Amino acid sequence: MASANTSWSEENFSCSICLDVFSSPVSTPCGHNFCRTCITKFWDEQVKYKCPVCNELFNTRPDLRVNILFSEMVDRIGTSLRVKEQPCVERAEVPCDVCTGTQLKAVKSCLMCLTSFCQTHLEPHHRVAGLKKHRLVEPMDRLDDRMCKKHDRLLELFCKTEQVCVCQFCTETDHKSHPVVPLKEEYEVKTAQLGKIEAEVKQLIQERQKNIQDIKDTVKRSKADADREIADGVQVLTALMRRIEKCQDDLNQMVKEKLKSTEKQAEYLIKELEQEIEDLTNRSSEVKQLSETKDHLHFLQTFRSLKDPPPTRDWTTVEVRPPSYVGTLRRSLDQLEETLNMEMKKLREAAELKRVQQYEVDVTLDPDTAHPKLTLSEDGKQVHDGGVEKTLPDNPKRITRWGGVLMRQSFSSGRFYFEVQVKDKTYWWLGVVRESIDRKGGSRGTPETGYWTLLYTKDKLVFRDNPGVRVPLRAGLQKVGVFVDYDEGLVSFYDVEARVHLYSATGCTFSEPLYSFLCPGPPVYEGNNSAPLIISPVNQTD
């Protein structure tokens, strides 16, 4: 028996009505095959029953028969064809509205049928006379949305007045006096605008992403600050607890020593009393023994030595006074309070200095701003007054009134910190200044004129203001730390070696860039002042 010819093309197994692979194929009396659904629907719409292929007329509606062999071949071949088929519609392509199962790509859309067709289902539009008159265009999706609801015509134009899509008939009626352009032209205009909007949106996204990162960085810094604050707090409180424990030990020791002194005095007196009791007991025995003798001579001779009692103390004036503890605890607590206050201040200032040192910045001296008498090191970290004024080019940035120099770096926000070594100097002046200070005239160097500085002279330390503020000075000041919080309006000075806060200017108003300022002073002032001012790296210690 010959096998089924599996080399037949898909057309041999396609319904001539739907042009797709047979689905539940049935046969008519004339021998032609159709999908059961297709032929049933075809005859439901006809007055006379005829074959769609050969046009043979039937007197009555024929009974549809299933060709079992053909149906099995359709199932086998159809399955094979479906396995071989690959998706034919790519993304952004228009699918055929007629295809069932796997949809093929549409090649044309009919504006009369409002349907998109693949190459196979488009064939009737090329063959049937009535369909040839339909208007075919490039494939379009959602054809219903592309038609004018009022005139049932394609929306091909754009009304600039009302900013809506219109058909050709609309331009002759409701939009007759409105300027209209082809959709493509308006599309290009709107596309350009969309590009601008997209760029703006991207910028907004980037700004918000930066805001998110800034917030995350702030939280990260806050966590680090919190951890550091906790660690500093533990260190301070541990030190205070040690002080309290020492105070307790000292109090216990003092009370015990008072008690021990009393006990020692009592022990001495008891021994003395016991000795007197022993002596008196002995005398009592002698007296009793003498009282029992009958020898007159012995009695009289012995009585003379017994009539004087042994020497004893007058115990009516002797007493052991218990130690007084009144005020002991109060005095101990007062001393503890004083010690704790000093210790807390010391630890607090040390912790504060450690925190501000986190904001260290690398600054270098700017030779263009240096007074002609000043000499700068090659690395821009040291400056001293040579005592001889050099001839230098005129520069509007140069300070000629005060013997000072500014840093290259300026700061207009945030926090910054730097340290200056002042060892072996008898005069110096340093701090921060605003950019617009008078560099040529003789204005006073105070906050009012843009100076926030400390001045050391004649063993005095002064914050320059009007009037100046005397700052307590410890002996051996060797290094000064300067901290600025631009946004908070704060300038603070620290004795780095002693880890002590010197002075803070609060409530400052900063509205322009700030520069670090150094003035080493004349080489001879209250002795030798030739040592340089040195910008030192921060060395944090616990």
Order of helices and strands: EEHEEHEEHHEEEEHHHEEEEEEEEEEEEE
- Provide the number of structural domains: 3
What CATH architecture label of the largest domain applies? Sandwich
- Please outline the major beta sheet: 7 strands, antiparallel
**Structural shape:** elongated
Under CATH at level 1, the class of the largest domain stands as Mainly Beta
Notes on the protein architecture:
With 542 residues, the protein is α+β, with helices and mostly antiparallel strands. The chain has 3 domains: 10-84, Herpes Virus-1 (2-Layer Sandwich); 186-317, no CATH class; 360-536, Sandwich (Jelly Rolls), CATH 2.60.120.920. Helices cover 34% and strands 18% of the residues. The protein has 7 helices and 23 strands. It has helices at residues 36-44, 68-84, 123-127, 129-132, 183-291, 296-306, 328-356; strands at 25-27, 33-35, 49-50, 57-58, 108-110, 115-117, 136-137, 157-159, 164-166, 180-182, 374-376, 382-385, 405-411, 415-421, 427-434, 451-457, 460-463, 469-471, 479-485, 490-495, 500-505, 514-519, 533-536. Strands 11-12-23-14-19-20-21 form a 7-stranded antiparallel beta sheet, covered by helices on one side. A 6-stranded antiparallel beta sheet has the order 13-22-15-16-17-18, with no helix packed on it. A hairpin with a 6-residue loop joins strand 3 (49-50) and strand 4. Helix 5 (183-291) packs antiparallel against helix 6 (296-306) and helix 5 (183-291) runs antiparallel to helix 7.
